[in-house]
Amino acid sequence: MEREHVVVLFQLPKQHVVSIAQDIDMAAVQTLDWTTEGQVLSAAQKQFYEKNGYIVINNVVPQYELDRWRHRFQEICERKGVRPEFTVMKDIAIAKSEFKSGEKAITKLQDFNEDPVLFDYCKYPAVVDVVRDLIGTPKCNLMSMHTMLINKPPDSGKLTSRHPMHQDLQYFPFRPAEHICCAWTAMEWVHRGNGCLVVVPGTHKGDLLPHEYPKWENGVNKAYFGIQNYDASMPRIHVEMQPGDTVFFHPLLIHGSGTNRTDGFRKAISCHYANGDACHYVNVEGTTQEMASREIIDIAKRRFKKRGIDVDAIELDFADIWRVRSKPVNGNRANL
Ligand SMILES: O=C(O)CCC(=O)C(=O)O
Question: Ligand 1 pocket by C-beta < 6 Å: which residues?
Fold first, then answer.
């Protein structure tokens, strides 16, 4: 029996996948203009992003919205309104501790595009306006590709709350990279003590580097890959932020986060956006992205199984998984 394709199952058209080596027709892709003012960003702010690969904007999201999303996350931790497509992740040290459930057990919630409360973050106008200034045009079809609410737990002493230095593009089978941007909003005061983000400015101008699981003594969380032979002497910045402040960053920017040495959780909500008019899926077989793609396919298979989908009866390829996970933010599903 011929296997059904996963996108057909989700009533999505099969997408066009190009080879990673074969250049996307850049003439058809609108080039980004760093010289003029955007809708909300000044030319100087856009140029800061272009040079450094990130920019922090203060007070993007008000406290009452953060409270709404925190409340929804806490409900999910109490197993209320858990949607089948959610990916709920636990810290490796906590999973082995007495905290088997509840907010203390969950380190990350992913794939909340279909959750009406949490998806409000991805649509939040003050966030979307900045993203459009960085990767698109005022009218472009923006896609929410990857969503996360990160609940970095107090470290158990095993240093597993760290996130190794990495580039997010390793996970993504779509390009061009400059039309992808992450928005990461602090849900509380984030500082060195509770493991704020750490970025290496300017590294978005380099290549996608090979990644691997770091050889940490007490293990490492699922799919937390770090850059192989990472050069820790590169000058880095600890991005300390107040609640509602948002850092926007390029998918090639090298970043990670430190240990949470406090007794509280360090929460942040984030969305990776892609300009759906400019980006296309690419085939990552035979590239350094293969390992990350295998892990993500694996996680997706387990999700589909939980939803009663017979994964042996369907074709599951990496780009299709992203097509199923992604959602238009404001307009149509163009290329993605
Ligand atoms: O929020 C953090 O600690 C880091 C998140 C991150 O870099 C990621 O999930 O790719």
Answer: 148, 150, 152, 163, 168, 255, 257, 268
